[in-house]
């Protein structure tokens, strides 16, 4: 973790390679997860949505699907009209699921969730889920049984990946804390007039410790003595087993923390338009407002005498690199990949399988749609948080992009 002026930057390395990169500026924190008491300003039947005043510059956008019961099994067979559920002047509690961006207001929902260290608490969802990244079926069943035992009435619980192997006492402590938090939200909602902020999501430092650190983490480095005590306190509360892995980095001359671990050079490369591959090939990465397009090229790689084998090896390396860079750059929305043409269907199937395998490692929902009729690969990746510095032209000293371009995930 590197403190750069008023920005906190966090990098996650695996086997020396940058796999995730987060940044958040003071005063530009994400609103995702915040809970507000709002007032409906107007209802749009043609869009099946409503605009809600939550006290920000732009009214928030609420889709009809986000007004229905959070458990799909409990939703009506025939979707009602938005005018049946919302009316101008109506007050309601909502939670931000997507930050305001480029003049658009935030997106909000009534499907509430509060994240803890081991699980996600959903006060009205009425079901128990288990992270798909937990593959052991016996462990999945154990966690599902515990979730049913811990929840009350119509509460919902999703067991996070970090819950694997944890005992009931740890999971129960998360449920109790989050249940009490939600009760305080409801009490504030009853007292305050709309629009009003009822709950603020944790800042980047707390989210990283809560969501990213697992027993697999070998070391946790931070280079700011003033932030170090806060990190130590959060670790002791959220992940006491990792306390002894926290290290304070002391600068040596011009060598900083991110330079020592090659974060700066890797980030600059990862956020470039042209990204080199180890075998001599390269990617061309273009991001537009509508979608992201990635072009794979063989470059200097000549491979073997077999053209199909050369192309396949290049595409396979590209698939692994692209999956990693989607996380580093925190790409959201539609992604189109133009792999080098392969003649054999078996080769195409293997590239698709590798992309699906890599997507399972992504903590953000990433759906591999597959090959299009034009031979392009299509995928979608969910993204909620946008840059808190979209108005700034200042250059990020780590990745070299302007902060206006720099998307980040907190």
From TrEMBL:
Keywords: Hydrolase, Magnesium, Metal-binding, RNA-binding. Pfam families: RNase_E_G (PF10150). SMART domains: S1. Residues 33-117 form the S1 motif domain. GO terms for biological process: rRNA processing. GO terms for cellular component: cytoplasm. GO terms for molecular function: hydrolase activity; metal ion binding; RNA binding; RNA nuclease activity. InterPro entries: NA-bd_OB-fold (IPR012340), RNA-bd_AU-1/RNase_E/G (IPR019307), RNase_E/G (IPR004659), S1_domain (IPR003029). Transmembrane segments: none annotated. Its cofactor is Mg(2+). This is Rne/Rng family ribonuclease. It comes from Paenibacillus nanensis. The lineage of its organism: Bacteria, Bacillati, Bacillota, Bacilli, Bacillales.
């Amino acid at each position: 973790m590197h403190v750069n002026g008023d920005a906190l930057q966090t990098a996650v390395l695996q086997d020396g390679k940058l796999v995730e990169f987060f940044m958040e500026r003071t005063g530009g924190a994400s609103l995702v997860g915040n809970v507000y008491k709002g007032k409906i300003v107007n209802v749009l039947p043609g869009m099946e949505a409503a605009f809600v005043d939550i006290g920000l510059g732009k009214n928030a956008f609420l889709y009809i699907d986000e007004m229905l019961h959070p458990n799909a099994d409990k939703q009506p067979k025939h979707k009602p009209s938005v005018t049946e559920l919302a009316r101008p002047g109506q007050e309601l509690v909502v939670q931000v699921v997507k930050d305001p961006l480029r003049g658009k207001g935030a997106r909000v929902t009534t499907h509430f969730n509060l994240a803890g260290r081991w699980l996600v608490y959903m006060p009205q969802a009425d079901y128990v889920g288990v992270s798909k990244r937990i593959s052991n079926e016996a462990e999945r069943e154990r966690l599902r049984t515990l979730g049913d035992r811990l929840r009350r009435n119509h509460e919902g619980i999703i067991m996070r990946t970090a819950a694997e192997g944890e005992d009931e006492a740890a999971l129960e402590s998360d449920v109790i804390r989050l249940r009490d938090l939600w009760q305080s939200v409801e009490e504030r909602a009853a007292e305050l007039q709309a629009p009003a902020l009822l709950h603020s999501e944790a800042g980047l430092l707390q989210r990283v410790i809560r969501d990213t650190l697992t027993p697999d983490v070998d070391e946790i480095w931070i280079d700011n003595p003033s932030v170090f005590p806060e990190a130590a306190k959060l670790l002791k509360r959220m992940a006491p087993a990792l306390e002894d892995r926290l290290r304070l980095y002391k600068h040596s001359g011009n060598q900083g923390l991110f330079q020592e671990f090659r974060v700066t050079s890797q980030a600059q490369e990862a956020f470039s338009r042209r990204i080199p591959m180890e075998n001599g090939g390269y990617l061309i990465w273009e991001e537009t407002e509508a979608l992201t397009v990635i072009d794979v090229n063989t470059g200097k790689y000549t491979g073997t005498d077999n053209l199909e084998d050369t192309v396949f090896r290049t595409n396979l390396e590209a698939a692994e690199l692209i999956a990693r860079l989607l996380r580093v750059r925190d790409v959201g929305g539609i992604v189109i990949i133009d792999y080098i043409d392969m003649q054999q269907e078996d080769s195409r199937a293997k590239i698709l399988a590798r992309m699906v395998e890599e997507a399972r490692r992504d903590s953000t929902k990433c759906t591999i749609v597959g090959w299009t009729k034009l031979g392009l690969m299509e995928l979608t990746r969910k993204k909620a948080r946008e840059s808190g510095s979209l108005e700034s032209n200042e250059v990020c000293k780590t990745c070299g992009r302007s902060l206006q371009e720099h998307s980040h995930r907190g």
